[in-house]
Amino acid sequence: MSVAEARADVVSNVWKLLTETGADVAEGDVLAVLESMKMEIPVHAPATGTVSEVLVAEGQIVQEGDVLVVIEAP
Fold this sequence. Notes:
mainly beta
């Protein structure tokens, strides 16, 4: 089993989380929406698998490169 990480592309605010630990996701699914300078930035699943960790909360400020969600891929 491999691990994939969804990361923040820019410094932003976690506006909305759309997944939770234990959820099955497909590559490309939107896991969260970030907000930066009044723009909404979707964060997509980098692989198909099961969400093993959600490392952020709505309203949290994240830095570029921060891991937001960890996915265990088969």
